[in-house]
């Protein structure tokens, strides 16, 4: 494991790697939020319909 940079070593590669990791994390987070929103959009109406069907059967 490296503990620092040599005098002639550039910091460009580590900076690009960190930027790539940050971008990947942002994309993953956005995808997760989108999928969760889609799940909620489909689950809530289905649950509402099931509850109403059950309530109407109780009458």
In short:
The chain has about 60 residues and is an all-alpha fold. The chain has one helix spanning about 10-55. The longest helix is centred in the middle third of the chain and has 46 residues, at about 10-55.
Question: What can you tell me about this protein's structure?
Answer:
- This protein has one helix at residues 12-57.
- The mean pLDDT is 90.
- The chain is built from 1 helix and no strands.
- The N and C termini lie far apart (71 Å).
- The chain is an all-alpha fold and 59 residues long.
- It is rod-shaped.
- It is 78% helix and 0% strand.
Order of helices and strands: H
Main sheet characteristics: none
| Helical content class | over 70%
What is the straight-line distance between the termini? 71 Å
What is the mean pLDDT? 90
Number of beta-strand segments: 0
Q: Segments where pLDDT lies below 50 for 5+ residues?
A: none
Q: Report the principal-axis shape.
A: rod-shaped
Q: Return Rg in Å.
A: 25 Å
Structural class per helix/strand content? mainly alpha
Beta-strand share of residues: under 5%
Number of helices: 1
Task: Please outline the helices and strands.
Layout: H1 12-57
List keywords for this structure.
59 residues; 1 helix; mainly alpha; rod-shaped
């Amino acid at each position: 494991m490296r503990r620092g940079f040599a005098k002639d070593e550039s910091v460009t590669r580590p900076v690009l790697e960190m930027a790539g990791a940050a971008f990947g994390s942002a994309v993953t987070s956005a995808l997760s939020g989108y999928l969760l929103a889609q799940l909620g959009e489909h689950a809530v109406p289905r649950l509402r319909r099931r509850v109403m069907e059950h309530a109407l059967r109780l009458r």
